[in-house]
Amino acid sequence: DGGITQSPKYLFRKEGQNVTLSCEQNLNHDAMYWYRQDPGQGLRLIYYSQIVNDFQKGDIAEGYSVSREKKESFPLTVTSAQKNPTAFYLCASSVDNYNEQFFGPGTRLTVL
Amino acid sequence: QKEVEQDPGPLSVPEGAIVSLNCTYSNSAFQYFMWYRQYSRKGPELLMYTYSSGNKEDGRFTAQVDKSSKYISLFIRDSQPSDSATYLCAMYRGGGKLIFGQGTELSVKP
User: Fold this and answer.
1) Of A5, B2, B17, B88, which is most buried with the most CB atoms under 10 A?
2) Taking the CB of residue A82, how many other CB atoms lie within 10 A of it?
3) Which of B58, B88, B98, B102 is most worth mutating to test chain A (most A CB atoms within 10 A of its CB)?
4) Rounded distance, CA B7 to CA B93, Å?
5) Which residues contact B36 (CB under 8 A, 6 or more apart)?
6) Residue A99's pLDDT band (boundaries 50, 70, 90)?
7) Residue A29 pLDDT more than 80?
8) pLDDT, tens digit (0-9, with 9 covering 90-100), for B54-100
9) DSSP 8-state symbol, A101
10) Which of A30-41 are b and which e, b meaning 16 or more Cβ less than 10 Å from the residue's Cβ?
């Protein structure tokens, strides 16, 4: 089955720790995206990548980092510099910039 | 002022009702308008994708775009309990980046 997988589904982190969220797609899409969703705020773009080995900051990139070493993988690291990391994180991919974005099931991160 | 405004609801309707969900936007350069449906604790899924002003119909769903008023709507006819979800409008701005509304939480009561 083609699709996007995110792991883990739930993640708990202590303050001051870095944590990496996994996103994998087998849709052969070039573009991949990371969003953050908070209650009542819709989705906000953290980082996006249009091609392997290239990525750009979105609207709220501070405290986050990404890599795109393989076409199918786009991991997101939430660093200790992120002031309020508790949120629902969604990964998406698309054929290219202006086509439909397909979303993964999300990772809920809670900082204890 | 937010670039995209969407009434967060929640909106509660009886089964069979017609539902109207709306978004306004401020930038006339926005194009490619979309509606996503998101069930609780799941990723969003695309419902409708339109480009030009006018109506697009798909089963019980109709998407309407009025570029002159910077206003988009999603209508759901004969609403069902399975339609209970959060509905997000989205549109592309420059650089291929999607911008989302806040989402409207809909509950359809049997």
Assistant:
1) B88
2) 21
3) B98
4) 21
5) A103, B44, B45, B46, B47, B87, B88, B89, B90, B100
6) confident
7) yes
8) 899 999 999 999 999 999 999 999 999 999 999 999 998 877 788 99
9) P
10) bbbbbbbbeeee
What residue of B is the nearest CA neighbor of A6? Answer: B43
In chain B, which residues touch A (CB < 8 A)?
4, 6, 8, 32, 34, 36, 41-46, 49, 88, 90, 92, 95-103
| Arithmetic mean of pLDDT, A38-47 | 90
Nearest to B100 by CA among B1, B4, B2: B4
- DSSP states of B12-79 as a string? EEETT--EEEEEEES-TT-EEEEEEEE-TTS--EEEEEE-SSEEEEETTEEEEEETTTTEEEEEESS-
Cα A29 to the chain's mean position, in Å? 15
Tell me the C-alpha distance between B16 and B13, whole Å.
8
Using a CB-CB cut-off of 8 Å, the residues of chain A touching B46 are 100-102
CA B18 to chain centre: 14
Task: Supply the pLDDT for residue A1.
Answer: 59
Query: CA-CA distance, A34 to B61, in Å (whole number)?
Result: 28
Average pLDDT, rounded, for chain A:
93
Q: Which has the closest alpha carbon to A39: B33, B108, B40? A: B40
**DSSP label at residue A30:** S
Rg value, chain A, Cα: 13
